[in-house]
Design goal:
Layout: H1 10-33, H2 40-46, H3 62-87, H4 93-110, H5 112-119, H6 133-136, H7 138-152, H8 166-171, H9 173-176, H10 185-206, H11 217-232
Length: about 240
Amino acid sequence: MPAAPKPLTARERARIEFTRDIKEAARRQLAEHGPDGLSLRGVARDIGLVSASALYRYFPGRDALLTALITDSYQSLGDAADAAAEALRDRSTAARWIGVCHAVRDWAVAHPHEYALIYGSPVPGYAAPEDTTGPGTRLPLLIGALFTEAATAGAYRPGDAPAAPEDARAALEPLLSRLPGETPADLVVAGLSAWTYLCGAVSFEVFGHRSAIVTDPRAYFDHEIRRIGTLLGIIPPPTP
């Protein structure tokens, strides 16, 4: 049996708790001022510190704190999507697609400022480091895996769509190089399109672009993702 994890020291527990307090204060700043208004000085005031100097032992600057918040948001969204897929592991790929889409929407509606941080406008002057790549690709890779599962099971039935031309395939080389060599480019395009359409639909709702024309967002979203899933081939077309 593996050895039991070593208990945390009081200092380690205090550091974890204080780091959590810093992040919570930063999220409140995001909600009130957006990412442009995030500062260590403002976070220090929020948690009752006279000076921001104590925070630099935890985050060396605003960008480091912003990276931590972005990573946490990607991980939280990824956890919600993974949990939805796992809860439906004995159901069809179509059902899992629908479940994952609703989980993404539910998370975004419940965490609009965190969603805006990862799928909204880029923060001026901030360049996300490679540390965010892994967490940031969890959702698209999960969606891609669903399309691959559907294809393996013979349940992937795309409509009459043009095959990916050579220049589009070349544009996908950074992604295709990370996948097994036998993965069809058209399947990758379908999965990438599904992620794009899903986040586009969620963004339109979270950012209020359809509030004046859609009176029941959840009902419309459910139809929308079923329609998108059918067009892209992960949901079987309706029987005539």
